[in-house]
Each structure stands twice: as structure tokens, then as C-alpha cells.
Amino acid sequence: MSGHRFYKSSKEDIIVDTVINISLTFLLIVTLYPFLNMIAVSLNDATDSLRGGIYLWPREFTLYNYKNILKDTTIYHATMISVLRTVIGTTTSLVAHVILAYILSRKDFVFRKPLTAILVLTMYFSGGLIPTYFLFRSLHLLNSFNVYIVPALLSAFNVIIIRTYIEGLPNSLIESAKIDGANEMQVLIKIITPLILPVIATVALFISVGQWNSWFDTYIFASSNEKLSTLQYELMKKLASAQQNMSASGPDYSAKGGSQSVTPNSIRATMTIIATAPILCVYPFLQKYFITGLTLGGVKE
């Protein structure tokens, strides 16, 4: 009888494992296919891609799509600006987030509740684009590198994530440190910060991806200063230029360019790969902290 139960249990486990494996394989294919298709289109001849039928492998392999984008010298300066705004913006924003989250996590802070309410209110309401533009102009942020840094210093969502994580830490750690003579800044730097590295890495990924992918702020607040142009903004300009050229040429666009031409689809696929590659290189190193931060940051003991 026990052997029959063991066989039945094993058979059920095999069925469950098979269903799970099939489901995960299907999910993997659905997730990876769009990106692999983008790679194939970016490596395929642009005019040939207009015929369709490009799936996981280029039909007419070429690097011209990448050469067409990378031959523009402004791309390299724009990439440097994107890297600088990502590194500086992420670093300064993390410092501001951690400090404010620690302050709001202290139950003895008098203005804890009203400040939290104001912070949450910003998640539902904003001043709008035009008032924001006039505010930035009055603060002399227009056409300045600071327009990439100052407005992105704080995010209510990220502050709440870090605050929730800190509130889950044992309060005895802070009390012990204060008994030993540590002040609030020492507690934050030496006690709290090392314990919240997972959630810091999670928020750092959020901020860095947002900074790297941002282009609309360049278009609205810094388009008059070419030295502040970012990689994403330059790629968007190239895409818009390709779309205008195709519209102006009409249905004969693919025939006029020959084998050395680009189309909006090829530009879009190529710029997606170029813009995504740096994030894909960084993400594997933060994946462990990312998953841990999301899991623990939302749990309060």
C-alpha cells in the first residue's frame, strides 16, 4: 500500500513538474522573442526587412544599421552625457532617498505623518508640464545639466519602499547604537545603510534605468543646448528623421535607397538594442539584490 501511494505521489509530482516546466518554457519564449526579433531586424538589411518574415535570424545580414547610427559623432558625446546623468543622478538621488526614508521611519519624528501624507499626495497629483516649465525657469534649471539631477532627487514611491524596509529592522539595533553614543547620522551610515543594501540596489536600478532611458526632459528643458543632448534624445531624432524621409519619398522609398538605406523599423530596432545593452550588462550584477529588495521591502514585521 505504501509503495502504491509513493508511486501515485511521484506520478502526480511528475505531472505537476511537467506543467510547470512547459509553462515556464512558454513564458521564456514569449519574453525573449520580441528582443531576439529586434536583434534580427537590426542585423538585417533595412529594405529587405520591409518584406517581413524576419523572426529570430537575419535574412540578409548587415551591420549598416549600426554604422549609420554610430557614424554620427554627436552620438558619442550624447552617450557621455547619458552616462554622467545616470551615475551622478543615481548617486545623489540614492543619498536623498535614504536620508528622507530614515527620517520618516523614526516614530519619534514629530512631522512624520504630515510629511508622509504630502509625499503620498505627489503620487496622485502633479503641477502639470507648463507650471513645471516655469518653475524650472525660475530656478535657472533650463539648458543646464542640473535639470537632469535636481528634479529626479526624490520619488515618493522609492522613499516609501526604503522606509518600509527600514521599519522592518529591529529597533533594538538603533537603541543600542544610541546608548553607545552614536548620533543619528552615525546610526544611518554605520548601522542602517549596511543592512538595507538590497533595497538600495533595487531602488538604484529603478533610478538608473529611468535616467538612462529619459529623453523627454532633454526635449522640453535642454533642447536649446546641444552639449546637453542625451543618447536617447539623439536616437529619437534619428528615428523621426527616418520617418520623415520615408513619408517624403512615398512608396518608392525602399527602391531609392538601394541596399545602403535605413527605414524607421530598422532604426527603431537598432536604437532599442543600443539603448538596452548597457542596462543588460548591469542587471545581472544587481539581480540578487533586486529580487531580495522587492521581497523584503514590502514586508513589515
From TrEMBL:
CDD domains tied to this protein: TM_PBP2
Domain ABC transmembrane type-1: 79-286
Key words of the record: Cell membrane, Membrane, Transmembrane, Transmembrane helix, Transport
Signal peptide: none
Main location: membrane
Entry's Gene Ontology cellular component terms: plasma membrane
Pfam families: BPD_transp_1
Membrane topology: Multi-pass membrane protein
Subcellular localization: Cell membrane
One GO BP annotation of this record: transmembrane transport
Residue intervals passing through the bilayer: 14-36, 75-103, 115-136, 148-166, 187-209, 267-286
Domain of life, per lineage: Bacteria
PANTHER family per UniProt: ABC TRANSPORTER PERMEASE PROTEIN MG189-RELATED-RELATED, POLYGALACTURONAN_RHAMNOGALACTURONAN TRANSPORT SYSTEM PERMEASE PROTEIN YTCP
Protein family: Belongs to the binding-protein-dependent transport system permease family.
Protein name: Putative aldouronate transport system permease protein
Lineage: Bacteria, Bacillati, Bacillota, Clostridia, Eubacteriales
